[in-house]
Amino acid sequence: MGKEITINGYQLEICSNSPQSALFAAQGGATRIEFCQNLENGGITPSYGQIVQARELIDIGIHVLIRPRGGDFVYSDLEFDEMMADVQFCKEAGCDGVVIGVMKSDATVDIERTKALVDAARPMHVAFHRAFDKCADPLSSLAILIELGIDRLLTSGLQNKAVDGVELLKELVKYAEGKIVIMPGAGVDSNNIEMILKTTGATAIHSSAKETVFSQMSYDRSEVEGMNEPIYRTSKEKVHQLVDILKKQ
């Protein structure tokens, strides 16, 4: 299990998409990581090998994204079974938490499946991710998450970027009354992190702190399309920048 740390009273979660990115996040000073792969398409559950390697490399919290595919958050029975199996593996692998999000077609929280995932995950920490930002009614959805015992909510305030959702984020923090941690995320960087925290009153923040990595191939067969697109990786320097700002708050 990873150690619990804060930065001047704040938690800085970095979304990392590989063991290398997780290592950079830890070296940069992050307090924990949300661990996924395929960040280019919104992130899905990382592989067995990635989870095991990341756990060996870093001693801060690892909270694994439980998402079997991209797209929406309405899952088939087989997909849900996969999610349950992934939760069980994360527990066995010594992860600190999981990050889930299951919705119904009417944009309400899937209470039955969320409860099943929470029960399966304990005693690990359980967060609900930005599936929340597709909900029909944010306050009633938040009330459900509190009732289900979710520990933390990652949300952009129902906007593409957290900086545009600060008023709702502020309302959610007030409504939560400390019963659940409201963690702003999406588009958070060194230019807006201070404003988001001060406006919302949040004490946890989420950022990808990513950089673009271009193909290292010295030869490209141009008639074959794709397979050498740029990828994302956590930037140690960008994490450092966020940490430095938090230390001054």
Automatic annotation (TrEMBL):
Superkingdom of origin: Bacteria
Family named by the database record: Belongs to the CutC family.
Gene3D superfamilies according to UniProt: Copper homeostasis (CutC) domain (3.20.20.380)
Keyword Cytoplasm: yes
Name this polypeptide is given: PF03932 family protein CutC
Keyword Nucleotide-binding: no
Cellular compartment(s): Cytoplasm
Principal location listed in the UniProt entry: cytoplasm
Keywords from the named record: Cytoplasm
Originating species: Sphingobacterium kitahiroshimense
